[in-house]
Amino acid sequence: SADFMPHGMCYFWNPSVLWLNVTADSVIAASYYFIPVLLFSFARRRRDIEFKGIFVAFGVFILACGSTHLLGALTVWVPVYRLDGVVKAITAVASMATTVMLIPLLPALIRLPSPSQLQVVNRKLELEIGERRTAEEQVRQANDDLERRVAARTAELAQTVDELRREIARREEVERELVHSQKMEAVGRLAGGVAHDFNNLLTVILGYGEILREQLQGNPEALESADEILRAGQRAAALTGQLLAFSRRQNAVPRVVDLNQVVEQMEKMLRRVIGEDIELVIQTMPELGAIVADPSHLDQVIMNLAVNSRDAMPDGGKLILETANVSLGAEYVGKHLNLQPGPYVMLAVSDTGSGMDQATQARIFEPFFTTKGQGKGTGLGLSIVYGIVKQAGGEILVYSEPGQGTVFKIYFPAADQVSEQSADIRPAHRERGTGTILLVEDEDQVRNLTSSILSRHGYRVLTAASGAEALQIARDLTEPIHLLLTDVVMPGMNGPILAQEVRGLRPEIPVLYMSGYTDASITGEDVFAGDVAYIEKPFTSAALQEKVQAAIRNVA
Fold first, then answer.
1. What distances in angstroms separate CA 58 from CA 102, 104, 167, one per listed residue?
2. What angle (nearest 5°) sits at the alpha carbon of residue 146, between those of residues 144 and 147?
3. Per-residue model confidence as pLDDT tens digits over 343-374
4. pLDDT tens, 430-446?
5. Beta strands in 209-294 (DSSP E)
6. How far is residue 513's CA from residue 251's CA, in Å, rounded to a whole number?
7. Per-residue confidence (pLDDT) for residue 225, from 0 to 100
8. Which is higher by pLDDT, 242 or 284?
9. Residue 347 to residue 322: CA distance in whole angstroms
10. CA-CA distances (angstroms) from residue 106 to 47, 51, 110, 198, 278?
């Protein structure tokens, strides 16, 4: 540098010129040094920019330019022109490199959007964002709606499953009731058949017992024996009556009755039966609807239920009889009863006794089932109640829990008619009979006994062991026949068919039927519907005479 002169000499060391150039070069150098720092910082932070290399090159170029200005200020006093040339050479190289790098980038830089274009793009982007948000909101609403529909459908399916379970339970209950009904029907048929055959035997035993009693009037000891035979026969007849009531084949005389009247008439008898340690409470509804039933059967229903309640309260308690008008809806009937919806009359018999568990309740209506001790019950009481209620077209339900008592609820169809008042029935005077009777009975002993009784009372009796034989007698006999007395169930030709055939020959002839039971499934016809003369086996001599006289008198 000793070979050169300082640059200040060019300014003639004029202070104003010198310091003006020194200050300007210094400010430019400082700015050029600061700009690369900003560029390097920008390039480091924005690593995503594809052309960040240009920033580095431009930063080096600016840095070199800053160095030349710094050396320009320095050479005013120190003539380091060789160093100044080197720095300028570096600056030249940096400028060329920057130029070379910038040329390929020009198309990309030109394509950069202008602010107005960016505003348009931003507006489009905002619209797209708005549409996307709207779509997202619609999707969210659709999702919420779908979730609500799924929840509603799930609730519907749960309700359907519950209804299906209830329906399955109801059908299982109906199946159990059907099996129980079929079992009861099968045992009932057996009981009815046994009772029918036994009634024929009892007819003979009681009939000849009465004849024997009449013949032993002068022998007290023998008369007592005959009375014992008759009492045993009557007890046996009562037992067959229970069997027939259980099997629903007992001859019923249904009429329109007031259930309140039946209950009130039995109050005194019930108080004697249940004893003083049991409180009897009767609650009857005023203006109770009428029902169609046999009053004697209703007495038997109430008595059997009262006796069961009494036996369930050995230490005393309360027995309540209640009547009420009820209207049964389709839903309740479908779940609990084998009835049609409509108006019914309810009879409830409840007690505060020992109650029953579910296993016992499932069997209480079975014949010969009893929870009582040996010799204390036949097991027919509730079976008879069940048969009578079914025969009247009703239904019976039981509610009970161990230690909580028992309630029986019986539903009878309400009748449209007003109940009949109890008539004053007095036995008619039995005078000695006259006339010819055609007696038809396939049982020899019953036929002989009946013929003997009628003959003893003055009738002429023509006997036949079959319908065909009786029809032949009716054709061949030229004399009048005043009564056809026929059994209902006979082999070949039954009583109703025989009566039709005989009335074809003798239209005015009265008919009196006799039978041990009256079930249409056995007779083949509903023989006892309407005003038909009928006597039930076993019968006494006096009852037979009264029925025969009444039948002949009605025609005369």
1. 9, 15, 89
2. 65
3. 999 999 999 998 888 888 888 887 776 766 55
4. 567 788 999 999 999 89
5. 255-257, 278-283, 291-293
6. 12
7. 82
8. 284
9. 6
10. 20, 11, 6, 129, 119
Q: Which residues pair with residue 293 across a beta bridge?
A: 255
Could you tell me the sign of the dihedral formed by the alpha carbons of 52, 58, 59, 60, in that order?
Answer: positive
Tokens of 26: 């210094």
346, two tokens: 């309810």
* Residue written as token pair 């027939």: 244
Q: Looking at residue 536, what is its pLDDT?
A: 84
pLDDT tens across 479-500, in order? 999 999 999 888 889 899 999 9
pTM of the model: 0.45
Query: pLDDT-derived band of residue 198, with 50, 70 and 90 as boundaries?
Result: confident
pLDDT-derived band at 88, boundaries 50, 70, 90: confident
In terms of C-beta distances under 8 Å and separation of at least 24 residues, what long-range contacts does 95-99 make, across chains too? 95/61, 95/64, 97/57, 97/60, 97/61, 98/54, 98/57, 98/58, 98/60, 98/61
Alpha-carbon gap, residue 78 to 72, rounded angstroms: 10
The C-alpha atoms of residue 494 and residue 527 are separated, in whole angstroms, by: 11
Report the amino acid identity of residue 4: F
What is the Cα–Cα distance from 14 to 66, expressed in whole angstroms? 25
Q: How many helices (H) and strands (E) does the chain have?
A: 16, 12
User: Per-residue pLDDT tens for 103-132?
Assistant: 887 787 677 777 888 888 889 999 999 999
**3-state SS of the chain: helix, strand, coil percent to 5?**
60, 15, 30
Q: Give the H or E element holding residue 514.
A: strand 511-515
The pLDDT of residue 521 is above 50: no
What is the C-alpha to C-alpha distance for residues 445 and 441, in angstroms, rounded to an integer? 9
- What Rg value do the Cα atoms of the chain yield, rounded? 60
Averaged pLDDT, 258-267: 89
Task: Please report, to the nearest 10 degrees, the dihedral formed by the alpha carbons of residues 413, 387, 270, 424 taken in order.
Answer: 70
DSSP string, 308-336: HHHHT-TT-EEEEEEEEEEEE-HHHHHHH
For residue 367, give the amino acid letter: P
**Sign (positive/negative) of CA torsion 132, 138, 140, 146?**
negative
State phi, psi for 269 to the nearest 5 degrees. -65, -40
